[in-house]
Amino acid sequence: MTDDEPATLFERVTRRSFLTRVGAAGVAMGTGQLHSLALADSDNVGQDGTQGDIAPAEGDSVHVRLNVNGTLHELDIDPRTTLLDCVREHLRLTGTKKGCDHGQCGACTVHVDGRRVNSCLSLAATHEGEAITTIEGIGRPGNLHPMQAAFVEHDGFQCGYCTSGQIMSAVALLEEPYGHSDEDVKEAMSGNICRCGAYSNIVSAIQQVRRKA
């Protein structure tokens, strides 16, 4: 190119100038986003200057009637509330444990109309009209369910965190069409994880109750 020829677009834009322009554009966009967030936060500052919670929109709660362990409960809850959080946080039935919260460990197992359910994956509001049973509804000290008594007798737990879910699955298993072998029990209980590794004792406890049923 001679001094008299106009520079092309490619020749006028160097690598350094290109990166400089891109960086400047990113800063400008980021500044705009931060400014928008700052305005949103300023709208949420109380009269005392403290940051307040964003008030939920009207109608965010739903009214539900849940039958839990034979007792009818009327609650106003967020429609996104899981059955697990409902029984633990609203009804204070903390025997049902929150483990993985992804339906993979079985610690949160409850019964819904006699079927075992991972309560962390189920919305509470979908269970109106159904019979929900937690570990508190299976048995109490002095009046244990045979499965609870068998777990104690066979040392079917160590840390105990998974035990309520294990027992709930084991009780449901009594009404399910599985075979009589230990392998059948292991298959039926495969959705319940014991991180302490007390599996052989759990199987022994279940088999004792199955033989007597």
UniProtKB/TrEMBL annotation:
PANTHER family: ALDEHYDE OXIDOREDUCTASE IRON-SULFUR-BINDING SUBUNIT PAOA, OXIDOREDUCTASE, IRON-SULPHUR BINDING SUBUNIT-RELATED-RELATED. This is Oxidoreductase. It comes from Caballeronia mineralivorans PML1(12). One of its GO terms (molecular function) is metal ion binding. The keyword Iron applies. GO terms for cellular component: periplasmic space. Keywords: 2Fe-2S, Iron, Iron-sulfur, Metal-binding, Oxidoreductase. Its cofactor is [2Fe-2S] cluster. Residues 62-138 form the 2Fe-2S ferredoxin-type domain. It comes from the Bacteria. The keyword Zinc does not apply. It holds the Pfam family Fer2.
